[in-house]
Specification:
Length: 351
């Protein structure tokens, strides 16, 4: 089975081609970061136009890389949400056009589901697993019991974690996106304890008996330090910020494991999986691997190049869904919002 995947929900245009033997036949990607840098964040209209400019060339290149023609495809998968709707529509319509012309199945992919299932492409992970989805637009803890079966245990009540990295980066004038730059500067810090003492930051939601997140207070505390210190030590502030983020993730996940142990002790997840752009952060990966081991769980994170948005993750999700017979109609409408767990509304959930 060979599936073509199209990603265009934010600021990356990606085309991936994957087979059901877990081989990546093509992975073409263009990031629009340079175009959005000027504005300090993603501008939806600029993003949509850039997707349109690049998608044909990427498609052609991906087909050449894979050494196949459209007639070799068993299906086309495209992100149909959630995301910036102009960009989503460009990828979705491209996917529908190929599916219609070849008379092959069209798979409308939830971008979040693609982040959730990518680790199953690169590792043999069985259900159920606990998923920490940490990206530019999402922060959620999910129990994944099968393809299409997701229970949201907790999510952010305000900013997403990647957004918090990016806004913090902007406050310190580190450029866009802030995440990789903050990690780089934090790694230069020789004394994290001293850095945290110099720039103390709050750990929102710490000790709360739920699995939700909040990042807006953390961002405000960073702003206060930036405004009050005319001789700002960016290395120390980045180190303090990153260590605080790790504490937040540790606190929320520890409570999630405690909660699951009390409500389903005989059917505990066997592994902790992290995915999304922020899962590229090495100190976060290292810390969560240790936390997993302490709790008797296996730990999985996709390779760095598959953490942020790409077409491969969409193609792989297409394979997972087509194998189960989930095919979508060509009149599927693009969705700006599309929660993985439809029973959840912001701030109100629990198993
Ligand atoms: O998954 P992604 O490409 O976007 C969404 O689908 O939302 O994630 C992008 C986010 C950005 O906020 C970026 O700053 C963050 O991932 N990011 C990182 C790192 N690399 C990317 N955050 C922290 N540390 C990193 N190394």
């Amino acid at each position: 089975m060979i599936i073509l995947g199209i990603e265009s929900s934010c600021d990356e245009t990606g085309i991936g081609i994957v087979n059901d033997q877990k081989e990546i036949l093509a992975n073409r990607l263009i990031s629009q970061q340079d175009e959005h840098k000027l504005y300090g964040g993603v501008v939806p209209e600029v993003a949509a136009r850039a997707h349109l400019d690049h998608i044909d060339t990427l498609l052609e290149g991906a087909m050449q890389d894979a050494g196949i023609t459209f007639s070799d495809l068993d299906g086309v998968a495209a992100t149909c949400g959630p995301g910036l709707i102009g960009g989503v529509m460009i990828g979705m319509m491209t996917g529908k056009a190929i599916a219609a012309s070849q008379n092959i199945p069209f798979l409308a992919i939830n971008h979040l589901e693609a982040h959730a299932l990518t680790p199953r492409l690169t590792d043999d992970i069985t259900f159920p697993f606990l998923l920490l989805l940490i990206s530019g637009m999402n922060t959620q803890i999910l129990l994944v019991e099968d393809v299409g079966k997701y229970t949201c245990l907790g999510q952010t009540l305000d900013d997403a974690i990647g957004e918090c990295f990016d806004k913090t980066g902007r406050l310190m004038q580190l450029g866009y996106p802030g995440g990789p730059m903050i990690q780089k500067l934090a790694l230069q810090c020789e004394d994290i304890t001293a850095a945290r003492k110099k720039y103390p930051l709050p750990i929102p939601m710490k000790g709360r008996k739920n699995m939700d997140f909040s990042f807006s207070g953390l961002k405000t505390a960073v702003r206060t330090h930036v405004q009050n210190d005319s001789n700002l030590d960016k290395v120390a502030l980045c180190a303090s910020f990153q260590a605080t983020i790790i504490d937040i993730l540790d606190n929320r996940l520890s409570y999630a494991l405690q909660h699951l142990q009390s409500v389903r002790p005989t059917n505990m997840p066997k592994s902790l999986v992290i995915s999304g752009g922020v899962a590229a952060n090495t100190p976060i990966r290292t810390h969560l691997e240790t936390l997993s081991k302490q709790n008797g769980l296996d730990f999985f994170a996709p390779p760095l190049h598959l953490c942020s948005d790409n077409g491969v993750m969409i193609a792989w999700t297409g394979i997972e869904r087509l194998k189960r017979g989930y095919i979508d109609s060509l009149d599927f409408a693009a969705r700006p919002r599309w929660p993985l767990d439809p029973t959840v509304t912001k701030g109100k959930k629990q198993i």
